[in-house]
Amino acid sequence: MILAVASGKGGTGKTTIAVNLAKYLTDPVDLMDCDVEEPNAHLFLKVVRQHSREITVPVPEVDESLCDGCGQCSQFCQYHAIITPNAKPVLFPELCHGCGGCALVCPTGAIRETQRRIGVIEISTDDHIRLIEGRLDIGIAMAPPLIRAVKANLREGITTILDAPPGTSCPVVTAVRGCDFVVLVTEPTPFGLHDLRLAVDMVSEIRIPFGVVINRYDIGDDRVQQFCRSHRIPILVEIPDDRRIAEAYSEGIAVIDALPEYRPTFERLMASVVDVMNHEGKSDANV
Amino acid sequence: MKIAVTSRGTSLDSEIDERFGRARYFIIYDTETEASQAVDNEQNLNSPQGAGVQAAEKIAKLGAESLITGHCGPKAFRALSAAGIKVYNTDADTVKEAIDLYLAGKLSQANDADVEGHW
Predict the structure, then answer these.
(1) Which of A17, A67, A265, B66 is the most buried (most CB within 10 A)?
(2) CA B113 vs CA A57, B71, B77, B87, B105: distances in Å
């Protein structure tokens, strides 16, 4: 099973949920930190580094002696990473999405692809957890290729928990696509509700079963609960606003290590996920 | 010669838009005929990345040889240079004021970007 932990709003507790679920499970589990702009799952684990690998994306290189300035590459590129305003193409590698189209359409064969580094993947282990973490280089704005590289490490038959980036744009879609279930973590505040709506729209669009975790459920108001009820969205578990959780977090200690009384919360969360998945499976079969 | 001026509105009396890539409009002014035309830049306005490069392509296609704007970032400046478009920064209030300053030779040509991207 591949379980993604996502949220619209940042700072709702995705990493806390992802890490503690991984720790709660006893069989081997792959924890994928797809929040590649700021991976932080490793802070809560005692990891032993296994290996790391550079990730690159293809970018075009122009041989000006072969280029006749026809501009077909620029007409093709919808990201304006290669423009031909005046006789010779000008390249903007940071805008390139690496599709290779410019090289394909070039009639004189003047364009070839070279590799541009965007970040690293680090694989490490802590007991039964294998952590696969993507880390985007500073100044690089293109997360999806690195997230895909993290997900390329998926292993058949191994439970996988995927910590998604916040938001609802390309990086998140790249992270949750292909997952079996999405846990949306939110908080009962107007911001939490606003971004939860966006996240619900996104996950519904990709048609992945999902449920909601309400973190710090005893702050704010009850509009998130009302929203979930009126849209028949399962609330998987609610976690209280407990100062001790924040203190453990600030020291890099997982909740279930610092406060074993929260172990049943993660047990319930896992059971709820399985329940919802079974239910969705049945309703699919009925259609 | 045609010059492009970044503008918040569609007339010569409109306020200058100090942004280039995400300017609301470009006023294309022909110094010979004194005719002007407003070109909508809404598509670039909402572009997450590469707005400056697209804007440079756009005004190059419109035949502009000079650009008057508030600020210009590094990618836009590279694209404009490649297109042979001269850049002039100004803090004038209106499009007309900027064009008058330019025609009076009171604007100096920029040698480089004057701001970071996405400033």
Answers:
(1) A17
(2) 27, 8, 6, 9, 20
